[in-house]
Amino acid sequence: MEAVKPNVVSVRNAQKSFGEGNARIQVLRGVEMEAQAGEIMLLVGPSGCGKTTLLTIVAGLLSSDTGSVELWGHKMETMNEARRTDFRRANIGFVFQQFNLIPTLSVLENAAIPLLIRSTPRKTALDRSAAMLDKVGLSGRYEDRPGKLSGGQQQRVAIARALVGEPKLLICDEPTASLDGETGAKVMEILRANALRDDRCTIVVTHDHRIFKYGDRIATMRDGVIESIVPAPQTASVRSLALVAKE
Ligand SMILES: Nc1ncnc2c1ncn2[C@@H]1O[C@H](COP(=O)(O)OP(=O)(O)O)[C@@H](O)[C@H]1O
Ligand SMILES: [Mg+2]
Questions:
Q1: How far apart are alpha carbons 231 and 57 in whole angstroms?
Q2: What is the rounded end-to-end Cα distance, in angstroms, of the chain?
Q3: Cβ proximity of 16 and 64 under 8 Å
Q4: What pLDDT shows up at residue 12?
Q5: Topology of domain 7-95+152-246, per CATH?
Q6: CA-to-CA distance for 165 and 116, rounded, in angstroms?
Q7: CB-based pocket (< 6 A), ligand 1
């Protein structure tokens, strides 16, 4: 029997609303969720059900109204803003649905940001950024501004930026939405290999059925709650494939 892995993420009764008075909408209605070390947790659910809001709260970019979010046992809501920012920068990589690249910086600089804000020497940061861009198939685009790239290429810059700091928790909001099937599979292979290292934890929001096989578990969200969490199909074969790919 496999040993029980420790929880990296533990969300208890998270509630979140936006707006006031008549315009108020309750987006999260008591989310319960756990994600463990070493797994890829897929999060699926209809548009508008609260997936991005939940991820943003798990990453400490937004606070829930009530409930708790613990990362490795640390309660996010008890940290002040500065501490939470440091904690996030040290431990979490985030692939934003809208990419959030900085238009005035080059592709190479964009992907290096997590290292540069941690005061990694510039040369080291840019070298590691280049290596990560190569992995996602963007060699030769280092000096371009993001605006010159296609949506799929920008998405891969966002993925390189999320991975470059080797975060222990990687959160991806629809990371393959702008990618063709083959590139999407390649990106998921990279995420899979990353997830297997040092018991990292990965959460991926997706609508893309083709990538379900790369997940360990699938959480289904509806109307602001997690309805079910079930094992993903074909986990074992994909895991051994990813292991072979690493060697
Ligand atoms: N900052 C915000 N202000 C007001 N409403 C928001 C905000 N963020 C999200 N919402 C609303 O919350 C709901 C859930 O959004 P979201 O979490 O982005 O859903 P999903 O990612 O599942 O599509 C939507 O109705 C959206 O319009
Ligand atoms: Mg979303």
A1: 24
A2: 26
A3: yes
A4: 97
A5: Rossmann fold (3.40.50)
A6: 10
A7: 18-19, 25, 27, 45, 47-53
| Backbone dihedral angles phi then psi of residue 175, each to the nearest 5 degrees | -70, -15
**d(C-alpha 221, C-alpha 45), whole Å:** 5
Which residue carries 């920068």 as its tokens?
89
pLDDT in tens, 125-142: 999 999 999 999 999 999
Closest residue by Cα to atom 17, ligand 1, is 50
207 φ, ψ to 5°? -110, 0
Q: Count other Cβ atoms within 10 Å, centred on residue 63.
A: 14
Q: What are the domain boundaries of the chain?
A: 7-95+152-246
Given strand 40-44, what is the order of strands in its sheet? 92-95, 169-173, 201-205, 40-44, 217-222, 225-231
Q: Are 68 and 145 in contact (CB under 8 A)?
A: no
pTM of the shown model: 0.91
Angle subtended at Cα 133 by Cα 208 and Cα 114, rounded to the nearest 5 degrees = 90
Rg (CA), the chain: 18
User: How many residues in the chain?
Assistant: 247
**Cα-Cα-Cα-Cα dihedral sign, residues 114, 118, 122, 128:** negative
Distance 48 CA to ligand 1 centre (A): 6
pLDDT one-digit tens code per residue, 141-180: 999 999 999 999 999 999 999 999 999 999 999 999 999 9
The answer for residues whose C-beta is within 8 angstroms of residue 139's C-beta and 6 or more apart is: 130, 133
- How far away, in angstroms, is 199 Cα from ligand 1 center? 31
Residue 224 burial (CB count, 10 A) = 22
Cα of 98 vs centre of ligand 2, distance in Å, is 9
